[in-house]
Amino acid sequence: MKVIVCGAGQVGWQIARQLSGEKNDVTVVDNNPDLVRRATDTLDVQGVAGFASHPDVLDRAGARDADMIIAATYSDEVNMVTCQVAHSVFAIQRKIARLRSQNYLDPIYSDLYRRDHMPIDVVISPEREVAEAALKRLLARSVFDTETFLDSKAQLLGLHIEEDCPVVNTPLRQLSDLFSTLRAIVVAVRRDGTLFAPDAGDQLFVGDDCYVFVHIDDVSRTMETFGKTQQKTQRVVVIGSGNVGLLVAQRLEAGKDRIRAKVIEKSRARAELAAEALERTIVLNGDGLDIALLTEANISRADAVLAVTDDDKTNLLAAVRAKAEGCPLAIALINDPSLVPLMEPLGIDAYINPRTTTVSSILRHIRHGQVRRVYSVGDSEAEIIEAEVMSTSPIAGQKIRDIDIPEGVLIGAVLKEGEVHKPTGGLRINEGDIVAIFALSKDVPAVELLLQVSIEFF
Fold it and tell me: What pLDDT, on a 0 to 100 scale, did the predictor assign at position 368?
């Protein structure tokens, strides 16, 4: 597949890395020659320096025979015009645009993106994706990562293994014997910084991070099995009222859980805008690092703090200060992956990576075949792919034990006729079933072959 990625920033670079690693023909376009050079030096991609919305630049990037264009520059307007030029001049079939402004995303203007108007096939909103990720972290306080799959009937839980975990040093095959009715499976483990798909003989050790795929009805039992308690979130302090912070506060106001939130915003103009947009949420104007202001926000009585300013270091320091003042859960928005190793020594409980969140959304629309969604794990080290099994797939009609599954791949769950099944050796995969598969990044092409996706390309 020939893909043009417009924008060589963090999101564009990550998408280019992912696609080039899967042997696609990728060209990166950016008006900053240094960013283009970084992409071509570190990735197996071609590069073109210039404005992505200019026809001659797209022509040099190979738009005449491209299969897809992904417009992920910093400018919404450039992304929109790029898709228009790609459609009108070069007839590129698949056009994806990243749009940040919430004005462009209002449902009443959805007709704007029709093919006879502004021909964009898929619109990705980083702020909305990040806000959703933040809400999931807030509502699942005992996990460091979570996502729902299979029509919200299964859930991925990221669990940190601590000394009081009842299943420490227990081979995973014994977990199935000890908890035979528990519909949960460990699909990945991170140990000493390395993520891997465990086999039945592997054990969990103190300090491991594990990813567990679980039936939605068995979440509570699974948490107990791993020594975690489900704590209800009632009070939240949000530091930063930009697009992400404001969206989170609005969702908390509208949610059925009746979570009470307070917002701290350094910019007076932004604070006033947030106060006008929110009905029941208190907005405080000041620095989120100010102890007096944190005290005024009752940080010591809050169940969680969410630091989502536009500065990573401010988010880290605000989270640390909130923890020092007695807040039990601190979540920080971090764009720079080099800062993630500081999380544990600083005592920050969880982080949200906008790049990973946005890349997950875009990958969902890039994957071949009947892929329903893709979730990127870690720093795009692995994916969970949810896909429908087609009649052409080699796994259709086979029992799981008979499928030649690569070492870095595990099936997390199977949805059959609306019912989620735990993957066992004797479970037969049929046409029309929905499977959720964990795969290390290097094994994603093998998963696509298992699903026979190339026959159903788009």
Answer: 55
